[in-house]
Amino acid sequence: MLDLIIKNGKVVDGSGLPSYLGDVGIKDGQIVRVGRVNEPAASTIDASGKVIAPGFIDPHTHFDAQLLWDGASKPAIEHGVTTIVPGNCSLSLAPLKEEHRMKLVGMFNQIEEMPLKAFEEGVVWDWETFDEFVARISRDLTINVAPLVGHSVLRLWVMGNESMHRGATADETKEMQKLLGECLAAGAVGLSTSFVDMDEKLQPVPSRYADEVELDALCEVLGEHGRLLQIVHEFYDADLTIARVDQLANLSLKHGITTTLSPLFVNANDNGAVDKVMQRVREQMKAGARVWPQVQTRPIDISFCFEVYKASSYYGCNIRNQ
User: Fold this and answer.
1) What are the residues whose beta carbons fall under 8 Å from the beta carbon of 252, sequence distance 6 or more?
2) How far apart are CA 138 and CA 135, in angstroms?
3) Residues near 172 by Cβ (< 8 Å), separated by ≥ 6?
């Protein structure tokens, strides 16, 4: 006997096939039947007039801090999202040493407009390593989390303030490789890096000082663990985006990894940009590379305020330590 049957719904199964009327049978928390299900079940839900779909995956989120006080990541879960991917744009909350916490807070504030008050009132810093962070957020989770580890925080951990000024030495790169491997073993699904983001001082984030040798070395570790690379590219320029597609394709083919770039969207000043980018993506995929664009489903927005902050104000935030 099944535990539950959801009947008479419009099934959209994620395969790309057209929707169809059908049922879904569930046993022991697993979907075991899809189609017409006539077996007995302990419970039945009539989904007539509704859509039955798998949970949605949001591959680009910044719920990193919110997970510390809201394990459901509202409102994402209320919109049918059952899996989130935090740690994008080269930023994650681990691995992170105590002396770099305010630097990361400043970057989250600048890049993602995460209020300093949210960190003041919602964050108790009781971790440093990635496995400690995973254990911390796992206490109250009601949503699936597939976290990325941020390239910028790897550089901060290994290089300190020098990460904001230069590329890594060979020894520092090896140390980052080891650290990335530890993060992947602790549950990170991949690495995120950024080629465009700015920090709280309007200077490039640490990942932007990395050279191709450093990124290649980190992708070698991703290949060993079967994990992915996410980048934020120069989305405002089609030619630069195509160059990044080629770079990702080379890394994918060399290390056997999946790569993804975000965001891809229509530029009103260049209506053919998306077609040009997608043509190159299809060419590289045909050659065997795995390069997946992430489409932004809303317009670009610009936020500003009339308040003037000194850069040092970010470091005066009273973050609680345990």
Assistant:
1) 258, 259, 284, 289, 290, 291
2) 5
3) 158, 159
Hey, what amino acid is at 34? V
Residue 211 tokens read as: 């050279």
**Coil, strand or helix at 23:** strand
- Residue showing tokens 């290089």: 159
CA distance 20 to 15: 12
Q: Hunting for tokens 């992170």 — which residue is that?
A: 96
Check residues 316 and 64 and name the one with the higher pLDDT: 64
On whether the pTM is more than 0.70, the answer is yes
**CB-based burial label for 53 (10 Å; 0-12, 13-18, 19+):** middle
> Tokens 């308040």 belong to which residue?
307
Neighbours of 129 (CB within 10 A): 17
The rounded distance, in Å, linking the Cα atoms of 53 and 80 is 9
Distance CA 183, CA 227 (A): 11
Q: Give per-residue pLDDT as tens, 4-46.
A: 999 999 999 888 889 999 999 999 989 999 999 999 999 999 9
CA distance 30 to 91: 34
